[in-house]
Structures are given as C-alpha cells and as structure tokens.
Task: inverse folding
C-alpha cells in the first residue's frame, strides 16, 4: 500500500489539541501564578503588618527602657519567619537601636519615612536584598520608636516562578499522559481505518481475495463487515462478468474468424480504407489481383499501394460524400477488374463515416466472352448474310426471269400451266422466306451490335411529330394493304427530344407494324404528348391483346407472343427487344398495357430535351463561315465526280500533314490540307471533299466545333469525317470513325476506303429498292454507274445524312415511303418510276 | 526539625498572647532526696561548642571533688546536660524539658546571650514549674534588668561593664575612634549597646559598625566586615562575638592591614580563639595574636597567687573531667581556660548556695542565694547577693597574648597602644 503522505486527521486533531492544551496551560498557569503573586503580596503585607504590630506591641516598654539587646532578641526570632528580609527598630529619635542586617544596614533604609499614625508600606529596592516591601509600624505613636519589617518581594517572585514551573511541569506531565492515552485511543481508531483504507485499495486493484479482520462491534466494525460483504458481491459479480465477457469474447472471436474467413475466402478482392485513406482491411483476393504478396499493408496509404484507378475510387468514397461508384480497373498480369466502391457509413448512434469498401471482381473472362459473343454474332451474321444475299438475289432474279421470260414462253403449253403456277407459288414462298430470313439476320445483327455497344448513335434534336409522320408513311404500304387505318395524334407544342431520329423511327415503325400485324380492324392510334418532363408516345390497337404474363416477356429476345397463336410466326421476335434497346439508350422507358381480346397499348417515353444555347451559338458561328447553301454546290460536286476522291486533311501539325498527304497520295487520292477548324469548314464548303480527316485539338476553332459546323450545314453534312485524335473519345465528337494516334497507315487506308465507299451510297442519284428489283436495267439513261440503290426504309437515313440529289422511287414502292415529305426537302428531287407491267410486289 | 517548628509556633503563640501574665509566684522546690541536680543547656557543639564544654568541665571538676568529699551534707550535686548548639529554639525546648523534671533543682551554667534572653519568659512563669537560673555565661542586660532580674543570679560582670571598662581605658590612651564588630543578635546588641552607652558618656558615638551572622565558622570570610570597619578608620575595634567569628575577623583584619588593637569580650572564649589564631598563624606564617585585648570577668588562671586558681588547676589536673556526652568527640579539651575557671567559680558559689539551702530549706533556693554575703572565693573579691542584687562580681580583667597565652595586660603594653 502506498503510504499516506498527508497528515492523518488524527495527527492534525492531535496537534491542534496539543496547541490548544499548550495555550490553555500557559494561560492557566499564568493566571494562577498571577493570582498567587497577588495573594502572596497581600499575604506578605498582612504578615509583615502582623509582625510589625506584634513587635511594636511587645517592645513598647523595652524601648522606653532603651534595652537594645532585648529588642534584638525579640526581632531576631521574627527574622526566622519566612519572607522576612529584615527587621529593625528605631527609637523616638529615629536612631536604629536594633537591626538584623549582616554585615551592615543598607544606607537606603536610613532614608525611609515613618508615619506616627498607623501602618505605612513602602516598596523599595535595597542593595543585596532586592525588592523589599517595607512595613513601618509606630510604637506608641512614635514616642517609643518605630518598627520596620522588610518583606522579601524577591521571594514572592521566586514562588511565582516556582509555581509557574511546577504548574508547567504538572501540566506537561498531564499532557504527556493525555497524549499517550490519545495516541492509544487514536491508534485504536485509526488502525482499523488504515486497514479499511488498505482493504479498499486492494478492492480497487481488484484483489477480492483480500480479507479484513475487524472484530469490533462499533461503526468501523460495521463498515468493515459491510465492505467485506460488498467485496464478496463484487467478486461474484466480477467473476460472472468475466465469464460473460469471456463467452462474449469467444463468440465474437468465433464470429470474427468466421467473418475474416469469409473475407479471406472471397473470390473477389476486398479493400477497406479508413476516412484518412489508409488501408484497414485487405483480403487475399485483393492481394492476388495486384500481386501484393504477403506483405502487411494495413495502415499504408491506399495511394501508395494501388494503381491510380483504385486510389481515385477510394478517394471518392472514403469520406462518405459520394454514392456507390464503379470503375473498370486494370489488374496485374493484364487482367481487367470491375471495382465497386461504397462508403461505410453508420447513422446510429451518430452519423459517422468509417471509410469506404471496394470490391473488385475479375471480369477478364467476361470481357473475353462478351467479345467472343460479339465477334461470333458479327461473323455469323456476316457469314449468313452473304449467302442469303445470293440466295435472295438469285431467287428474285430467277423469279423475275421465270415471270418475264420462261413462263410467258410456256403459257402456250396447257400442260405446263399447272406446274407453272406451282413454281410461281414456290418461288414466291422462297423469296418471302428469304426476305424474312434476311430481316431476321439484320435484326439479330442489330441487337447484337446494340448490346455490344457498337452502334453509332447520331444524336440530334428530334421532333416526335416528324418521327410519327415518317413512321406512319413508312408503314403505309403495310396497313393500306391490310385495310387498317393508322391515325396519328400529336399534341401541340410538343417539346423536341434529343436522340437518333432514324432509330426512333425504327421504334415507331416496329410498334406500328406490330399493331397492324395483330389487328384485324382499325384504327391503330399513334399519340405523342407531354408527360411531365417526358415525351410520351403510345401506339394503341384493337387486336387480340397480350396476356398479363406475357406483358413482361414480350420485350425479351425471341419472345414473340405470336408463338402462342395458331398463326404462323410473321416476325423475327426481335423487334420489341430492339425497341427497348433504343428507348433505353435514350434514357427512356418502354412498356405495354393490354386487355386480352380488347387490344393493347405500347408506350415509350423519352425525356424532353432543352434546346441548348451552345448549339445556337455554334450554329451562328457556323452560319458566319458557311452561308446558306446554294445550288452551285451540286454543280461543283457533279463536275468533279470523275476525278479521284478529294481528301481534306485537317491538322495543325505540319509533319503529320505531310505524312498523311503522302499516305493518301500514294493511294491515288487528291489531298488538301487545312490547319484549323475554321479553315477546314471553309475548304470543305469550297472544295466539297469526299472525306475529311479531322484532328480535335487545334488552335482557333477546334475539331469538335468544326465537325458540328460541318454536320449542321446541309452542304457538308454528308461528308464522312475520320477523326484522328490523340484523345480516345473521338467518336463522340460527331465524326463517323475515330482512329487514335499514332495511326497505322494500313488501317487508315482501309477505313478511308470504307468511308469513301459509304460515301458512294450517298451519291446524288439514288434508287429505292434493289437494282434488279427496281428494274433499272431498262432505265440506264440516268447515270447508270453512279446510281445508288437503297432500301425504302433507309432513304430517311440517307436524307438525314445529308443526301442531296435525285431519288428514284419505283412506283410500287411509293406507298411505302412519304413521297410528299421527300419532295418537300429542298435539295432533293423525286422521280417516280412507272410500274412495270406484270409485276406485283405484294404477291 | 518539623517538630521543633511546631513547638516554635506554639511558643510564639504563647509569647504573643501573654506569657508575662502566667504564674509569677510559686518558687520551684529544687531539693530532692538524695541529690541536687542542676539542669544545664549549653552549646556543646558548633562554633561555640568549646565554651559549653569548658564551662561544664570547670564546673564538674569542682562538683566531682565536692561529691567525693560527701557532697552537700551527703547529697551529691549532679549536672544534667543538654546541648542547644548556641541556638535559641533548642535552648527553649531544653529549658521546657528541664523545667518539667521535678528533680531538677535549678537551671545552671547556660551559655550565650541569644539563648538566655529567649528563655527568660519561661523563668518568669511556667505553670507548676518555676526554676531559677544560676550564673548564665553571658554578660547581656535582659536578665540583669526587670522583669527577669529576680529569676536570674549572675556571677560574672556584664558586657556593659566590660565595654565600659574597655572604652574608659581606650579613651585614656587616646584611642577615640572606636568601631564595633558584633554578632547580629542579642549578644552582639548587648555589647553594641554597652559600647554605645560608654562612648556616650564621653560624648562620642560608635565610629563604625559591622555585623556577622551567628554561627559563622572560622573558615568563612570576614573581609566584607573588615572593609566596612576600615571605612570608619577606627583607632580600635571592639569585637563582640563568638571565638570562631572573632578569630576569623582578626585574621582577615590583619590580612587586610587593619592592625589596630582589637578588643574581645569575655564571652569569646579566649583559649579557643587563641588556638584558632595560632593554627591560622602557623598556616599563613603570620602572627595573628598581636594587638589583641580580651576582657575577662575572672582572673587569669595563670595568676597562681590566687588560691582559687591553684585549687582550679589542682582539680583540673587531678580530675581531668571529660566533656559531656553530647560534646563533639573530636573536641580536644583545654588544660585550663578562663571559661573553665568561670565554671569552677560558678560551681563553688552554687555549692555554697546549695549548702545554705540544704541547711535551711525554708529559705528556698532564691532565699538561700540571696542570703550569701561576702563569700570569699579565693580571687581577692568577695561575692554577695541580696534580693535587690543578683549580680555577684563586677570586676573586669584585661588580658593579652604573650608567649602563646592570655595574661594580664601590663602597663608597658598599654603604653605601646597609646596614640
């Protein structure tokens, strides 16, 4: 036990008592001594007076006889009385007749005065004797003489001091005695207190085995016993709590082991960072992903251990101020991982951020599979398409040949009439099925491309009214044929949306075709109106409807409601999934509502776009550079048609310019060079190149703005643009194809040729329908080599891409497209080809 | 001591409340069948012890001889001794004790003024016990004056007489400035008073005085007293004290150059004083015995012309009486002494009185004593008592030291001291 350094309460009390006792004893003895002094002085006075009176009374006669010896004998005996310093007797002449002095009477005493009438007291200082109380008594009123008795005051003082000393000794003895008793008593009290203190100290130190022996029955004993029982209570409580804690700790440890085993055995990598960015948990999976080995990383800054992608993610989440974040990150050994980071935030009891947790999954394999799938679909589609083109093409040619040449020649033979009809029917089936198969292949390819993200979206401001009108027009051939009316109802002041117009048309065509397909009697109603911030489009029919269960499935791939019908399937089953892909790309929704038997309604909604001022600004800038198109451009274009394709190289780097010029000239192309966007736009307008290679980062007008200008202007809209940039998001900039620098010249040339080939499609003469189909072999009058053939549906795409020139529409196709709309386009001339007799496409 | 204290208190009370009123009459029947016992309380110890011893020895020498010759008509005389050490209180106690004993005839040979003056009231009247005091060895006045003179019979001359003789003699020699060295008690006061009175007759006063405390031993210093005396430039010093103190005074006076004659009175015990001075002189190589004048109340024991001297010396030689049993064993008895001679004379007178009493008991002791008339003691001076006169002798003798002993002063010596 630590010694109690401060003075104990008993010691303090003892000291206080001692001091008080000392004070009291001092005062008491002083008072007593003073009283004694006073009393003794009075006593001495009365004693001296008595002696003086006694001598005076007895010596009257003797003095009168002048017997000095007798007087002497008398006064001698009084000298023996305590306190008497001297006695002397004077006669009436004041001559000393007797005295008791040795060796002589002090001269001072000769000067004392006498009083004839009674006692006289003087206090005198006498040599050798000290302070003396002289009492003078006249004998016979001074006639016989005077008696002087000297009382020794020094003796009084001696008694005074002696009594003080004795008293002090007595008091001191009493004090010693009392202190002894007090010491004994306080010891008896304080020892148990000390024991109690030590005991309490032991209890405080959790030593419950300590015991305390207090047998007394007083308050301290009771206290001791209470503490003892308290200690027992505490001991049992402690042991109970300890066992509980041990149990809980065991459970916790087990749980921790369980959790840590789970974490350790996660196939995914797990990383937990603290709010300060240091690593708190890292599991073996994570180590493996980054080849971190067995080194201990807890406490390290995440920035120092992991690549920047992980660091950025952890920075973003560790402060709990961001939502769930995900990113693709490079793992070691060329693997790719998908990391998902979220903050660890507790709200109870207080909102507190504990950092962030990042889960990393190795998606290398999935990526590869995805690629494989895409490649597979592309390959298969391509491999299927090629033969299908041949099959369909040859089938049509055969059918045409048969219809035009063989069957008229055989009509004369009656025996053959029946086989001819059969062949015609069979040929019809072959062509229809081949067309259906081609459509299916195209759809599959389309959806595969969409899912693989390989579709190039051309975002622009789109008015849904246009889309509806175009879609209805496009499908006119179908519904007219089936005798069903399609009604379009567009709300006034409908906001435009931002999106790919042709794809949206594709969605509407799909929905209308579907509606028409499953409806026996019209009308099919197409509506477009604002629904809050969205543009809501619906297509309602009065068809057979879709069952509740099927409503959710119809947007899945190859889920055709028609499967359940007795009708033979008439679609690919991919139309609605494609629609969904397109709508979702536009951040919209698509769904269907239906009452089986009463028809169904298909909805899709796309967020309305706000027209950005930047576009306007850009347009203004572009208008400054590119004024309104004029007809001279067509002339110019046509004038140079025979020359080698002109390529405009736009780059601010002269070395690269020279390199590209060389590459392209080697391929036989003509090359012009522009060093910035503005110059590029001007040159594009003036020279109308067949292709532009565009750098994005340039002084003055940059490539991005230049592309916008070019795309916004009808003259230059069609020019394919190959983006050559150090940036990786070249495609987004609005170009057709993007290549990342450094440029591989072989690939560059391939892409260039491909783009130039596409350009051919957009040449000034366009014929709708197949070359054979259109039957133009008889109409070669119109630039037969340069004529482009295109699907009726695709005409809008070409127009969208900036096609200018003449469109030839076979008469049998004019119901499939909106000819009126085409004629309204400013730079497009429409020529309807007359129907060739004997050909009925619909059959 | 405690007991003495109480007794003293009682006595003091008695004295205060009128001892004098107690019984005066009824003279004590001092005779007893078979012997006469005399009660003697004296100093046998202490600084004056030699006085009592020598007084006793002188007395007993005579009584022994008397008793051997048949005593007083066949009745021996016995002296019962009690020691009071020259202190008043023991003397009183002793006296009371002696007076209570019926077989004590009278009190005899008391020594010292302070003792005797204190017991006088007892003599005056103690109920049923009244005893006379014979021949106290003191020259003080109280017992020679009323009211006590009738209870006391004195043989020797008084101090007053001694000092008167001295003063007269010195005045004749032209030694006029006289200082007094005296014991601070009744004895000293008696001498002082005597000197004062004698000088007064010449119209002079004591030129200086110094006292000492009774009981002072020889080895104590008296220098302070010598200085006080010297201050008065005396021609002569009158010394009234005991032999030890007086010898010490003489020693210190001589040592301090005070060489004037120093006169001592009879009480001093000349032989004892001489012995001390001779001893001191031998130790210091100085003769302290010069210029000393001691008055005596008996003739010199060297004066063999006197029959009493011869008788005394013969008895002392033959008897060689032992000191009393109370005496200090170390005391060496003197061969002869003035004191012893006085004791011898006291006994001789006492024997005459007792014989008278024995023969005429009707006289009573006082009457027997008062009937003495012109009794020849063999000292060339007769002794007479009467109811008016209780003083036996008046003669004073001057002695000085010559050849180591006190002898009568011759005329040439006086002239040598003349101034």
Result:
């Amino acid at each position: 036990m630590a010694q109690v350094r401060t003075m104990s309460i008993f010691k303090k009390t003892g000291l206080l008592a001692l001091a008080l006792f000392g004070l009291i004893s001092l005062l008491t003895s002083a008072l007593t001594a003073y009283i004694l002094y006073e009393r003794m002085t009075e006593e001495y006075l009365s004693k001296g007076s008595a002696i003086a009176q006694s001598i005076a009374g007895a010596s009257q006669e003797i003095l009168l006889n002048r017997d000095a010896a007798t007087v002497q004998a008398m006064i001698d005996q009084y000298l023996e009385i305590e306190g008497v310093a001297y006695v002397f007797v004077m006669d009436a002449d004041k001559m000393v007749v007797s005295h008791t002095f040795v060796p002589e009477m002090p001269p001072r005493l000769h000067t004392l005065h006498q009083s004839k009438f009674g006692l006289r007291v003087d206090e005198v200082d006498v040599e050798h004797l000290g302070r003396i109380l002289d009492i003078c008594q006249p004998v016979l009123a001074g006639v016989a003489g005077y008696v002087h008795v000297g009382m020794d005051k020094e003796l009084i003082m001696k008694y005074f001091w002696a009594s003080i000393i004795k008293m002090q000794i007595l008091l001191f003895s009493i004090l010693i005695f009392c202190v002894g008793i007090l010491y004994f008593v306080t010891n008896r009290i304080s020892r148990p207190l000390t024991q109690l203190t030590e005991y309490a100290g032991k209890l405080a130190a959790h030593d419950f085995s300590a015991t305390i022996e207090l047998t007394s029955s007083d308050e301290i004993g009771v206290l001791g016993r209470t503490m003892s029982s308290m200690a027992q209570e505490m001991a049992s409580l402690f042991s109970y709590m300890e066992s509980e804690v041990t149990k809980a700790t065991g459970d916790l440890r087990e749980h921790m082991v369980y959790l840590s085993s789970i974490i350790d055995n996660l196939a995914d990598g797990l990383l937990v960072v603290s709010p300060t960015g240091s690593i708190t948990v890292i599991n073996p999976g994570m180590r493996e992903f980054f080849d971190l080995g067995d080194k201990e990383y807890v406490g390290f800054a995440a920035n120092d251990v992991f690549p920047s992608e992980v660091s950025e993610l952890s920075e973003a989440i560790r402060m709990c101020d961001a939502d769930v974040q995900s990113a693709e990150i490079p793992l070691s050994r060329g693997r790719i991982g998908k990391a998902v980071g979220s903050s660890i935030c507790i709200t109870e009891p207080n909102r507190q951020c504990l950092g962030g947790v990042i889960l990393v999954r190795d998606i290398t394999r999935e990526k590869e599979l995805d690629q494989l799938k895409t490649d597979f679909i592309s390959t298969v589609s391509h491999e299927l398409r090629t033969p299908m083109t041949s099959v369909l093409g040859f089938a049509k040619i055969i059918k045409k040949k048969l219809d035009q040449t063989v069957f008229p020649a055989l009509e004369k033979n009656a025996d053959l009439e029946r086989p001819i009809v059969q062949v015609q029917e069979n040929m019809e089936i072959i062509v229809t099925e081949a067309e259906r198969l081609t459509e299916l292949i195209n759809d599959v390819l389309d959806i595969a491309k969409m899912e693989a993200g390989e579709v190039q979206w051309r975002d622009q401001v789109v008015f849904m009214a246009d889309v509806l009108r175009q879609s209805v027009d496009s499908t006119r051939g179908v519904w007219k044929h089936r005798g069903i009316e399609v009604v379009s109802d567009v709300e006034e002041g409908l906001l435009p949306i931002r999106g790919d117009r042709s794809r949206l048309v594709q969605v509407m065509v799909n929905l209308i075709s579907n509606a028409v397909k499953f409806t026996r009697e019209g009308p099919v109603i197409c509506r477009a109106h604002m629904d809050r911030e969205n543009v809501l489009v619906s297509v309602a029919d009065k068809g057979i409807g879709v069952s509740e269960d099927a409503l959710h499935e119809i947007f899945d791939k190859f889920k055709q409601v028609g499967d359940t019908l007795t009708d033979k399937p008439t679609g690919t089953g991919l139309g609605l999934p494609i629609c969904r892909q397109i709508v979702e790309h536009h951040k919209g929704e698509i769904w269907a509502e239906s009452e089986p038997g009463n028809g169904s309604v298909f909805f899709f909604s796309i967020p309305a776009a706000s027209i950005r001022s930047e576009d306007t600004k850009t347009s203004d800038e572009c208008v400054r550079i590119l004024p309104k198109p004029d007809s001279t451009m067509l002339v110019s274009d046509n004038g140079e048609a025979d020359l080698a394709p002109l390529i405009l190289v736009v780059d601010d780097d002269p070395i690269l310019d020279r390199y590209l010029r060389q590459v392209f000239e080697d391929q036989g192309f003509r090359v012009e060079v522009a060093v910035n966007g503005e110059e590029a736009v001007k040159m594009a307008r003036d020279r109308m190149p067949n292709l532009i290679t565009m750098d994005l980062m340039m002084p003055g007008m940059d490539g991005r703005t230049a592309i916008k200008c070019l795309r916004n202007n009808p003259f230059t809209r069609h020019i394919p643009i190959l983006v050559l940039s150090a940036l990786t998001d070249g495609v987004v900039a609005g170009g057709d194809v993007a290549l990342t620098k450094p440029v591989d010249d072989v690939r560059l040339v391939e892409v260039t040729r491909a783009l130039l080939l596409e350009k051919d499609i957009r040449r000034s003469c366009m014929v709708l329908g197949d070359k054979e189909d259109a039957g133009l072999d008889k109409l070669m009058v119109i630039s037969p080599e340069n004529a482009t053939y295109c699907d009726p549906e695709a005409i809008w795409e070409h127009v969208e891409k900036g096609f200018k020139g003449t469109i030839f529409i076979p008469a049998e196709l004019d119901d499939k497209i909106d000819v009126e709309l085409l004629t309204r386009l400013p730079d497009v001339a429409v020529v309807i080809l007359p129907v060739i007799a004997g050909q009925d496409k619909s059959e | 001591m405690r007991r003495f204290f109480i007794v003293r208190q009682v006595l003091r009370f008695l004295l205060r409340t009128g001892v004098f009123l107690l019984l005066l009459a009824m003279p004590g029947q001092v005779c007893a069948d078979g012997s006469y016992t005399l009660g003697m309380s004296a100093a046998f110890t202490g600084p004056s012890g030699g006085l009592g011893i020598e007084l006793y020895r002188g007395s007993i020498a005579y009584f022994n001889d008397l008793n051997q010759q048949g005593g007083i008509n066949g009745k021996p005389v016995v002296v019962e001794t009690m020691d009071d050490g020259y202190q008043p209180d023991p003397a009183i106690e002793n006296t009371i004790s002696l007076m209570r004993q019926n077989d004590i005839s009278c009190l005899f040979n008391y020594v010292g003024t302070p003792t005797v003056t204190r017991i006088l009231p007892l003599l005056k009247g103690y109920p049923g016990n009244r005893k006379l005091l014979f021949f106290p060895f003191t020259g003080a006045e109280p017992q020679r004056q009323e009211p006590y003179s009738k209870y006391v019979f004195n043989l020797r001359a008084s101090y007053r007489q001694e000092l008167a003789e001295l003063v007269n003699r010195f005045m004749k020699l032209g030694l006029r400035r006289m200082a007094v060295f005296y014991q601070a008690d009744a004895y000293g006061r008696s001498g002082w008073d005597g000197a004062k009175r004698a000088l007064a007759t010449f119209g002079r006063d004591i030129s200086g005085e110094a006292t000492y405390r009774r009981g002072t031993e020889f080895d104590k210093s008296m220098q302070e007293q010598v200085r006080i005396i010297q201050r008065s430039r005396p021609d002569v010093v009158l010394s009234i004290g005991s032999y030890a103190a007086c010898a010490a005074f003489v020693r210190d006076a001589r040592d301090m150059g005070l060489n004037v004659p120093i006169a001592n009175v009879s009480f001093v015990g000349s032989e004892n004083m001489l012995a001390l001075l001779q001893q001191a002189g031998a130790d210091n190589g100085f003769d302290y015995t010069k210029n000393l004048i001691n008055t005596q109340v008996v003739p010199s024991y060297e004066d063999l012309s006197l029959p009493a001297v011869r008788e005394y010396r013969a008895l002392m030689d033959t008897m060689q009486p032992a000191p009393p049993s109370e005496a200090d064993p170390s005391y060496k008895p003197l061969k002869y002494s003035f004191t012893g001679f006085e004791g011898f004379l006291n006994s001789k007178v006492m024997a005459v009185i007792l014989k008278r009493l024995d023969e005429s008991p009707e006289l009573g002791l006082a009457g027997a004593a008062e009937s003495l008339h012109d009794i020849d003691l063999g000292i060339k001076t007769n002794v007479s008592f009467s109811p008016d006169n209780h003083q036996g002798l008046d003669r004073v003798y001057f002695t000085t030291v010559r050849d180591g002993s006190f002898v009568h002063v011759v005329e040439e010596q006086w002239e040598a001291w003349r101034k």
User: Anything to note?
Assistant: The radius of gyration of chain B is 21 Å. Chain B touches chain A at residues 8, 12, 15-16, 88, 113-114, 117-118, 140-142, 145, 184-190, 192-193, 196, 209-213, 224-225, 228 (CB under 8 Å). The domain at 22-157+305-388 of chain B is CATH 3.40.50.2300 (Rossmann fold).
